[in-house]
Write a structure and sequence with these properties.
By secondary structure, the chain is an all-alpha fold. About 75% of the residues lie in helices and about 0% in strands.
């Protein structure tokens, strides 16, 4: 069985322990990040500076990224950074299934992806793929799911969005979180497109359509 398939199956087994709702969110996220990371790894601006990129290890690292999040549903391993915890869980699940050197490289890519100082290309690719998942409609839907988990609704999500805009969060996030110009551009485009959607949500949430019609006394 190909390395990625082995890692993917092991990761899915852990993610499903989080329960149907959370597991679905985590699995969807892992698949999006893996897909985006694979495309990012093939960008011209990356292949010009790094001729040999281990795309398999990036995809594997994407799938194991949130293993600790799944287990935290059962209040396990709260004390360590999430990527280190996820790497440790993956190492245990993958032992004897793929070579130890590959497990170590996958873990290194995942852990290094959290560092702004890393110069490891695979780690930078994974970092941008994860950051991109926070942008645009995908990011907004993830935020809405987070609000639901806290017993909140659309109004709380809109309030959070407006605060981020007021504080210049999105501009700072794009400038500071992304390593590559192409992913920066895509992130900026996603946020720009969200402005119309947010405006529509605010319109519908405040009944402004009726005010505009001037049909009420």
């Amino acid at each position: 069985m190909p390395e990625l398939e082995v890692v993917k199956q092991a990761a899915l087994g852990v993610l499903r322990t989080a329960g149907p709702f959370t597991a679905s969110l985590l699995i969807d996220r892992a698949e999006r990040i893996a897909l985006n990371a694979d495309y990012i790894a093939q960008l011209d601006e990356i292949t010009r500076i790094e001729t040999i990129i281990d795309r398999s290890v990036i995809s594997c690292a994407a799938y194991i990224s949130d293993l600790a999040v799944a287990l935290e549903q059962n209040q396990i391993f709260y004390s360590e950074p999430v990527f280190e915890k996820s790497a440790a869980i993956a190492a245990e699940k993958l032992a004897g299934k793929i070579p130890r050197a590959r497990i170590e490289k996958i873990s290194k890519v995942l852990i290094e992806s959290a560092s702004r100082l890393t110069r490891m290309c695979e780690a930078m690719v994974l970092s941008d793929a994860r950051s991109l998942d926070d942008m645009g409609l995908v990011g907004l839907l993830r935020e809405f799911c987070r609000c639901l988990g806290q017993g909140k609704g659309i109004s709380a999500m809109l309030t959070g969005w407006k605060r981020r805009v007021e504080y210049g969060y999105w501009d700072a996030r794009i400038n500071e979180s992304f390593r590559f110009e192409t992913t920066k551009k895509i992130a900026a485009q996603r946020i720009a497109r969200m402005e119309k959607l947010i405006a529509q949500l605010e319109l519908e949430s405040s009944a402004s359509e009726f005010v505009a019609l001037k049909t009420l006394p």
